[in-house]
Design goal:
Elements lengths: L7 H39 L3 H32 L3 H14 L1
């Protein structure tokens, strides 16, 4: 389906899928960075890099939180954009007949 023929609900669902993927990687990045931090905290402090890594961890965590917030908002919007059951059945029938 091209961008021109997508419904607002389809656009929201596409965006949700992308944000959920980003959230997954943000969480993994935060966990990996935290693991490294715990292993090398003392050495990083000696090398005067602890503050820089801590700032990165904080920003990565903030990104993860912001993604969670936006996902929640878009999930609510997706529910509101759902067509009533009768309209959904008609739209599905039209989509199938176009194929």
């Amino acid at each position: 389906m091209t961008t021109d023929t997508k419904s607002p609900l389809e656009h929201v669902n596409d965006t949700l899928a992308q944000l959920k993927e980003m959230r997954h990687y943000a969480k993994n990045n935060t966990e990996s960075l935290t693991a490294q931090w715990l292993l090398f905290d003392g050495e990083l402090k000696k090398l005067k890099h602890a503050d820089k890594i801590e700032a990165l961890m904080t920003r990565q965590s903030e990104l993860h939180d912001a993604l969670n917030d936006e996902i929640a908002v878009l999930e609510e919007l997706a529910v509101k954009l759902q067509p009533p059951a009768e309209e959904a059945a008609q739209a599905e029938a039209q989509t199938v007949s176009r194929r």
